[in-house]
Specification:
This protein is mainly alpha-helical. The chain has one domain: Orthogonal Bundle (ABC transporter involved in vitamin B12 uptake, BtuC). 71% of the residues lie in helices and 3% in strands. It has a two-stranded antiparallel ribbon with strand order 1-4. A two-stranded antiparallel ribbon has the order 2-3. β2 and β3 form a beta hairpin. α1 crosses α9.
Length: 303
């Protein structure tokens, strides 16, 4: 393997890492506060769709990321109201979000752009890379931003009073409530932060990394992000490690598919299954040993 191939795989893995890490960090914050959301797949789908529309209307990819974040927040408000304020089940709303995401985007692409299953994002609506070589290998500014987000999230969670309260309402909301912490407000805030980060991740898929919107653009990355969250032990910094591992296998399939020599040697369809196989192995190896926050997924009802 020559230097160019190594560079291409490295940069591609970093690009594939971004949506997984952003979603994992958000999910960790939400579950640290005690709120489970399995609907990140749907948020990725819908934010990729609406982020693209926003970016093309504004002719600016960064505005598209904002559109994705707002889409995520809107979905997060619904999920937060159901789970935090109405004390509903945490899993069922996530299933609904995923179903709406896949069905809504498939319909929306056809209804808005008049094409079936796919829309190519306009060049002036895409985010420009920080650096690109003669072979098309590039470094997105979102890679740098994602690494910074992971470190900032860790610092906020473990080194600030706000983070202490977030963790308190997920570990022992009764004690936090007795000390005057507004459990519902902190849980709801954590849900919105998680949904916003996932929304940015979804918009990144379309207006930056892939440059297209498809009816299956999330491709299971929302679920991989949840596995990465468990793998990292709900730690934002460690999620970078897991995100890079999953991102590598995710990018490897694309790399092999686009390489004529490798595509004839190794079926890319087999390589494409590796991120999901790795996810299953990770979950099987960690489940039972990883400890979630004590009140994770349990509605808090004040006595």
């Amino acid at each position: 393997m020559n230097t160019g191939m190594i560079l291409g795989l490295t940069l591609g893995s970093l690009a594939a890492m971004v949506p997984i890490v952003l979603t994992s960090v958000g999910a960790a914050i939400s579950e640290r506060a005690g709120v489970v959301n399995i609907g990140y797949e749907g948020i990725l789908m819908l934010s990729a769709f609406f982020g693209t529309i926003t970016a093309e209307l504004a002719h600016n990819g960064w505005v598209g990321l904002l559109g994705g974040a707002l889409t995520g927040i809107a979905i997060g408000i619904v999920h937060g109201v159901i789970t935090v304020y109405l004390k509903g089940d945490h899993v069922i709303p996530g299933i609904g979000i995923n179903l709406i995401g896949y069905g809504g985007v498939a319909f929306g692409i056809l209804a808005y752009w008049g094409t079936a299953g796919q829309h190519q994002v306009a060049p002036n609506a895409q985010i420009k890379p920080l650096w690109m070589d003669a072979f098309g290998n590039s470094l997105s500014p979102m890679v740098v931003i994602t690494i910074a987000v992971a470190f900032i999230a860790w610092w906020v969670l473990f080194k600030t009073p706000f983070g202490l309260r977030i963790r308190a309402v997920g570990e022992n909301p009764e004690a936090a409530d007795a000390l005057g912490v507004n459990v519902e407000l902190y849980r709801f805030t954590a849900v919105l932060i998680a949904s916003a980060l996932s929304g940015i991740a979804g918009a990144y898929l379309s207006v930056d990394w892939l440059g297209t919107v498809t009816k299956t653009i999330a491709a299971g990355r929302g679920f991989i992000a949840l596995a990465n969250m468990v793998f990292s032990g709900w730690d934002p910094i460690l999620s970078l490690v897991g995100g890079l591992i999953f991102g590598f296998f995710d990018n490897l399939a694309i790399y092999i598919q686009n390489n004529p020599w490798l595509a004839g040697t190794i079926p890319w369809q087999f390589i494409a299954t590796l991120p999901y196989l790795v996810t299953l192995l990770v979950v099987a190896g960690i489940i039972g040993r990883a400890r979630a926050p004590k009140w994770d997924g349990i509605p808090y009802k004040r006595e």
